[in-house]
């Protein structure tokens, strides 16, 4: 029996390797399971578990690299197909803009056209009388035929409008003959037969003779000077031409003063011609200045359409020439906006309704010719922008192609390394063939060409243990060809005898199999959802809703008062773009029920989930050529902006996930919106608006803009929803306010009853510091929805926190004290001589009428008024002398807006209640003063109060006993990321990974004073970096890993520990006593004093890398007797805490006991209890001792890896005690751990400036200089 068992075990050992040559898989026909030959898991040493696990890991990595290689290769192929080297030539041949441009390119010479008003058909008719008068002089032969028409030789130069004096005096040193002016000059003096050519010097001499004529009627006319300028423009002397324009301006302005009908025509022609001259001279800034000054206002009554078009065309040319000349033939990213703006210049003449040509055929011909030139230039500009967009896409594609090819090579190299590792662990080809033959030996039996025997082999290659040697079954062939031939019939016979598998099919299921039933159901619902509103519009509100509104308080003249202003809850800075509202106007306001479209509209019940897979709703680019939105530079920027978390409007996520009437994942909502878009469920504008909302939440402005453009271009739909969203996208991406304001104005035109639009316009006005405009729109919003508490809160905040940009009536007319009886008079200064007149409110009248009152003076009243005043006031009769005055008319106008007092009846329903949006009156408690004139009472605040308004940290603390014991804090911080699961070494391997869940670094980092750094450098100059000097210096990694624990002694702060802790008495007999600090009541704690925004308090129970700070053991033992152990000190602290009340019954535990207890827990290594004690100390410590707890907190955070929190705590301690060595050394160590060695050195040197023999600081300075590999510059110190 034992021999049988032994034989069986031997067979198992021998056949172990026989059956290890395969692993199994489903066959290609999916009908059977078959062995996989050449498996990578057939190892050379199958008994090695380490090799097997490494092989499994390598095979997985090989599979991942193979998938990545296929993905990258597919992307490379796609990008190579998209790469088009002939893209520029193809676009120039096919693009409509490029075809429109024709032969005109972007060369600067093409934009120096001479648009002359002299070419307008009716120009010369204004000067017919002058040309008839000079005809006889024109025909005279000049005395000097070589005389040149230099205008400044006989005339004084004037100033061209719009140019400063220094530019008017500039000279143009460029010669540029202008062939256009050869034709323009021929048009001058049309009724005079020209015997000589206008190009000959004799013609110039004739003009010069007229310029030098003795009669002013001949020489002092702008027409003559413009002709002389045309002569010089023809010959190319721009300096002389400009001189003639300047002399012509003088006479044209004189003609304007005289009322000459041709004067304005002359001025316009001169300015247009001068502008084209500056364009010729490459001075487009001067041309723009002249034209914008002269043609700023469209005046169709004084300027002909031809003249106005010439000015617009010259201005467009100048705008293009103003672009950087070095890039005139190609644009870059930063110039797209400039080109787009110039396109608007060229487009403006076509969009003006006033340019309707008269019936004159000459007008029509000239305007059509000008239109043709402008169209070509507009086409050239638009063509260049189109080329840039396409070439930018090509460049981006090539950049990605290069990076992906480099990535392919990198991944391929990694794959080859992994393949070598896999082959290195696999069995050799010889042994693999032996194992296959052994398998066939066991399966098919003996074969004469196969020889098998047992041999000895090592089971583990690196072991020499005797038990490591095992016997294996080794097979080989004597004749391979004969063996294969003999095995063919045996293998076929085995295959025929295999039982049938009943056509069983095997397949690999998809990860997310599509629900075909749902697809069919969705297909049947296509186009069936209602396209019209299902419910009535929400706005305007009906009369029944308005009947519940008790008070339109925002329209009252006496709102808000001091009580109203105390109700402000929000503390956000409404003038800061960071707090600009993120708004989505629900289509339900228009009558469309969104939840129906997202559920039943796509074939789902309200409780059902959308079948997988879930994908995002993408929108395609839309052609907007010619649309008014295509000229928005902010929209162009948004379309070319990549997705980024900084553009994510996360506050809208709560709206997005509730669109289907229950909370669901945002990606499921995205798929529902996609199903609407793909199957035409509901109105197209509605689904694209919902898609835009999703992309706004995700921070993808490009896709959001595409969806909104499509929604806006959808005909017969409410566009205000999309316009409001687009305005917010542009504001988020660009920060500009002009274009969002335009879009919101368009949205108001689409639906003026939507209150959210007015609210956004108000908040946008606040970003521009336009308080009056904001007040107006906030009130308009409440006029449409009085139940919106957010808008009411904003209005109250603006009204209470500051002042309108117009003066308040109560500030202009302050109340004064006239006597002990009359303390609320209002005084008006009616004139320089008459002085001030004062009035009081008539208490007997219900209208709030004001009556005259004399303050601190002697006066009498007539018989009628005397008895009225005697009845009203108990004045001494000796005071009434003189006469009274009637109430001034304007007094009754402003009387409804003056402060209302308890003794006065308020005027109800003032006539101007709807118009006093800018008047803000706030009741205040004022003490009456002796009257000293209005100057003594009027102290206006600056209008720009909001420019200095910031989020501040404020403390309102009681100043005396008996006052209310409370305070108010206002702070702002960016919270740290919350870990997705409890921290564990299973997924956090390194201390540096803790920074992911740390607070953000503050904008202003702590730094020592320059004096301290200089002193430290003088005490310990930077060591020279040489091999000999650095050989004995410790490595930086060793120093940073073994951090020095720091502790600020409480005795250094002047505190006597013996007052709180019994240091000399017997140790309590109860064992295991520990100082557990009391918890702080959150209702009484200050989150700012306690630094609650730091994550250390929330994560202190999960500090993986925090270790006991044994270096502080001596500091802890020094608190008791010399022979006390740590446990004894803990017991003493426990007893002291109990004696101190443990914070119970309203008692406040001493901060000193909390700090000392934290020292014990630091030595023990319990971070959670140490941080709890420090939290107690921070809440109760006086200001001058807070640094003790802050340094300890910084040490714990430093050890735990929360370096940002450590720096914040240590920096706060530095601000309290700037000359404490422990603080400087602690901050230096934190900076060194962060890798900021420059700042670390600064604090190490400041440490030495405070304690010159502090060796740990010197040791770390040497290590940084020797081992950091960086250079440091202290020359600026």
Automatic annotation (TrEMBL):
Any coiled-coil regions, as ranges: none
Residues in the signal sequence: 1-20
TPR repeats: 1221-1254
Single GO cellular component term: cytoplasm
Keywords: Signal, TPR repeat
One protein family per Pfam: TPR_8
GO-annotated biological processes: actin filament polymerization
InterPro entries attached to this UniProt entry: TPR-like_helical_dom_sf, TPR_rpt, TTC17
Entry superkingdom: Eukaryota
UniProt key word Signal: yes
PANTHER family membership: TETRATRICOPEPTIDE REPEAT PROTEIN 17, TTC17 PROTEIN
Protein name as annotated: Tetratricopeptide repeat protein
Species name: Ancylostoma caninum
């Amino acid at each position: 029996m034992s021999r049988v068992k032994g034989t069986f075990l031997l067979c198992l050992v021998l056949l172990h390797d026989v059956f290890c040559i395969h692993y199994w898989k489903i066959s290609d026909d999916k009908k059977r399971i078959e062995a996989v030959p050449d498996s990578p898991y057939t190892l050379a040493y199958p008994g090695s578990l380490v090799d097997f696990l490494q092989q499994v890991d390598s095979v997985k990595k090989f599979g991942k690299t193979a998938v990545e290689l296929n993905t990258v290769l597919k992307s490379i192929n796609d990008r190579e197909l998209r790469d088009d080297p002939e893209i520029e030539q193809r676009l120039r041949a096919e693009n409509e803009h490029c075809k429109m441009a024709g032969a005109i390119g972007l060369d600067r010479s093409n934009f120096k056209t001479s648009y002359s008003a002299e070419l307008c058909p009716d120009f010369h008719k204004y000067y017919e009388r002058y040309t008839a008068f000079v005809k006889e002089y024109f025909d005279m032969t000049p005395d000097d035929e070589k005389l040149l028409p230099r205008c400044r030789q006989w005339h004084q130069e004037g100033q061209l409008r719009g140019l400063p004096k220094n530019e008017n005096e500039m000279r143009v040193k460029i010669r540029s003959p202008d062939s256009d002016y050869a034709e323009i000059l021929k048009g001058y003096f049309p009724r005079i037969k020209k015997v000589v050519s206008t190009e000959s010097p004799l013609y110039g001499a004739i003009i010069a003779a007229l310029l030098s004529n003795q009669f002013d009627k001949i020489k002092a006319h702008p027409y003559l000077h413009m002709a002389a300028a045309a002569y010089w423009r023809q010959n190319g002397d721009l300096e002389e031409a400009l001189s003639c324009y300047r002399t012509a301006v003088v006479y044209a302005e004189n003609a304007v003063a005289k009322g000459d009908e041709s004067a304005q025509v002359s001025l316009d022609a001169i300015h247009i011609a001068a502008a084209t001259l500056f364009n010729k001279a490459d001075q487009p800034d001067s041309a723009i200045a002249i034209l914008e000054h002269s043609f700023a206002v469209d005046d169709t009554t004084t300027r002909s359409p031809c003249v106005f078009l010439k000015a617009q065309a010259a201005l467009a040319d100048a705008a293009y020439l103003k672009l950087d000349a070095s890039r005139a033939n190609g644009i870059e990213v930063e110039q797209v906006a400039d080109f787009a703006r110039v396109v608007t210049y060229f487009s403006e003449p076509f969009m003006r309704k006033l340019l309707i040509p008269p019936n004159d055929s000459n007008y029509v011909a000239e305007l059509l010719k000008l239109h043709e030139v402008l169209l070509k230039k507009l086409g050239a500009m638009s063509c260049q922008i189109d080329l840039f967009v396409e070439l930018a896409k090509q460049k981006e594609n090539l950049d990605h192609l290069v990076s992906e090819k480099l990535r392919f090579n990198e991944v391929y190299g990694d794959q080859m390394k992994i393949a070598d590792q896999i082959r290195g662990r696999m069995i050799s080809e010889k042994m693999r063939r032996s194992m296959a033959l052994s398998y066939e030996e066991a399966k098919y039996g003996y074969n004469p060409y196969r020889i098998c025997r047992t041999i000895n082999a090592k089971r583990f290659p690196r072991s020499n243990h005797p038990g490591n040697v095992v016997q294996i079954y080794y097979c080989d062939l004597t004749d391979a060809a004969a063996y294969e031939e003999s095995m063919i019939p045996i293998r076929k016979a085995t295959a025929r005898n295999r039982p049938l598998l009943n056509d069983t099919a095997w397949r690999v299921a998809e990860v997310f199999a599509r629900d075909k039933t749902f697809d069919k159901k969705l297909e049947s619902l296509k186009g069936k959802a209602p396209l019209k509103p299902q419910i009535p519009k929400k706005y305007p509100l009906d009369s029944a809703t308005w009947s519940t509104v008790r008070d339109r308080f925002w329209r009252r003249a006496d709102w808000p008062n001091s009580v109203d202003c105390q109700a402000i809850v929000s503390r956000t800075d409404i003038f800061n773009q960071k707090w600009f509202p993120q708004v989505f106007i629900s289509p339900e306001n228009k009558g469309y029920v969104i939840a129906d479209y997202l559920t039943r509209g796509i074939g789902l019940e309200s409780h059902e989930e959308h079948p997988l897979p879930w994908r995002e709703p993408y929108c395609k680019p839309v052609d907007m050529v010619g649309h008014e939105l295509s000229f928005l530079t902010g929209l162009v920027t948004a379309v070319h902006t990549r997705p980024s978390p900084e553009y994510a409007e996360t506050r809208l996520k709560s709206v997005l996930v509730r669109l289907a009437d229950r909370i669901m994942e945002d990606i499921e909502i995205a798929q529902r919106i996609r199903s609407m878009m793909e199957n035409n469920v509901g109105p197209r504008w509605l689904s694209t608006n919902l898609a835009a909302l999703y992309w706004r939440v995700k921070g993808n402005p490009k896709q959001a803009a595409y969806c909104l453009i499509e929604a806006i271009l959808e005909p017969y739909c409410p566009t205000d929803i999309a316009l409001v969203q687009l305005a917010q996208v542009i504001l988020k991406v660009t920060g500009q306010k002009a274009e969002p304001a335009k879009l919101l104005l368009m949205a108001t035109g689409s639906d003026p009853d939507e209150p959210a639009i007015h609210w956004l316009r108000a908040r946008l006005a606040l970003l521009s510091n336009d308080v009056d405009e904001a007040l107006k729109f906030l009130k308009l919003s409440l006029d449409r929805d009085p139940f919106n508490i957010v808008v009411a809160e904003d209005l109250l905040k603006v009204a209470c926190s500051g002042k309108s940009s117009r003066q308040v009536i109560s500030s202009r007319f302050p109340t004064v004290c006239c006597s002990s009886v009359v303390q609320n008079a209002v005084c008006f200064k009616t004139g320089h001589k008459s002085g001030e007149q004062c009035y009081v409110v008539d208490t007997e009248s219900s209208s709030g009428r004001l009556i005259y009152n004399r303050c601190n003076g002697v006066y009498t009243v007539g018989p009628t008024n005397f008895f009225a005043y005697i009845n009203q006031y108990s004045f001494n009769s000796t005071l009434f002398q003189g006469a009274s005055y009637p109430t001034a008319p304007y007094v009754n106008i402003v009387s409804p807006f003056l402060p209302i007092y308890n003794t006065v009846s308020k005027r109800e329903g003032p006539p101007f209640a709807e118009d006093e949006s800018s008047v803000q009156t706030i009741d205040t408690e004022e003490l009456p003063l002796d009257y000293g004139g209005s100057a003594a009472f009027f102290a206006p605040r600056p209008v720009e109060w909001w420019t200095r308004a910031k989020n501040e940290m404020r403390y309102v603390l009681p100043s005396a006993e008996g006052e209310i014991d409370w305070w108010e804090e206002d702070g702002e911080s960016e919270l740290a990321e919350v870990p997705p699961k409890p921290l564990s070494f299973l997924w956090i391997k390194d201390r540096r990974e803790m920074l992911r869940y740390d607070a953000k670094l503050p904008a202003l980092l702590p730094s020592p004073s320059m004096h301290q750094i200089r002193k430290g450098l003088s005490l310990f100059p930077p060591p020279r970096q040489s091999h000999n000097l650095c050989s004995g210096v410790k490595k930086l990694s060793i120093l940073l890993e073994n951090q020095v624990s720091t502790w600020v002694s409480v005795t250094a702060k002047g505190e006597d520990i013996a007052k709180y802790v019994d240091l000399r008495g017997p140790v309590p007999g109860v064992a295991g006593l520990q100082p557990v600090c009391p918890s702080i009541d959150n209702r009484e704690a200050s989150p700012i004093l306690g630094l609650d925004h730091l994550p250390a308090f929330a994560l202190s129970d999960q500090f993986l890398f925090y270790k006991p700070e044994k270096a502080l053991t001596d500091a802890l033992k020094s608190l008791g007797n010399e022979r006390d152990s740590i446990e004894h000190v803990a017991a003493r602290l426990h007893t002291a805490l109990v004696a101190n009340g443990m914070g119970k019954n309203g008692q406040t535990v001493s901060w000193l006991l909390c700090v000392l207890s934290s020292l014990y827990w630091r030595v023990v290594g319990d971070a959670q209890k140490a941080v709890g004690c420090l939290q107690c100390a921070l809440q109760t410590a006086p200001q001058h001792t807070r640094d003790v707890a802050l340094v300890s907190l910084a040490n714990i955070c430093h050890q735990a890896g929360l370096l940002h929190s450590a720096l914040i705590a240590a920096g706060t301690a530095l601000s309290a005690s700037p000359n404490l060595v422990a603080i400087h050394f602690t901050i230096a160590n934190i900076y060194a751990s962060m890798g900021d060695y420059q700042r670390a050195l600064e604090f190490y040197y400041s440490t030495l400036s405070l304690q010159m023999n502090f060796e740990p600081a010197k040791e770390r300075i040497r290590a940084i200089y020797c081992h950091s590999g960086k250079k440091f510059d202290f020359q600026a110190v």
